[in-house]
Amino acid sequence: MSDDTDLVVEFLKGCWERRVMAATAESCTGGLIATMLTDVPGASAVIDRGFVTYSNASKVEMLGVTVETLEQFGAVSQQTALEMAAGALENSKAGIALATTGVAGPEGGTDDKPVGLVWFGIAVERRKPLAIKRVFENNGRDFIRREAARTALQYGVEALRGA
């Protein structure tokens, strides 16, 4: 089990209390959020599915992210995070979806999109999806991915509190 058990349990408990299933749509975290959630026994009561959409094609095919969005704004963008979260909600039985898209490094960063940049998408049924930008310190790929997964779960807990 991860070191983040309290946070994970808080998210799972929030889903249970609100009687909603959860889905993830992960790019830069590569399934880490889903792994953290399913490390907890009994998580199957509230976890519907996880989409690992690392390629642009998978974002389009599995989540309905538009080619136009990817061409105009790129995979690491507010618009893509919003469409990923909304697509995960739409293509699942979930009532909340968490999405991540970012630059985990060590290569791939630019001045506009540095290593450590992550966009989070949070979609809750009957609410407009929300996107939040964070730039994590470049302490290596593993650090960025883990911090992004933790942060997504924190945003999920906050969204459930507002449900």
From TrEMBL:
Signal peptide: none
InterPro entries (alphabetical): CinA-like_C, CinA_C
A Pfam family the protein falls into: CinA
Protein name per the record: Competence damage-inducible protein A
Lineage: superkingdom: Bacteria
CinA C-terminal domain residues: 10-155
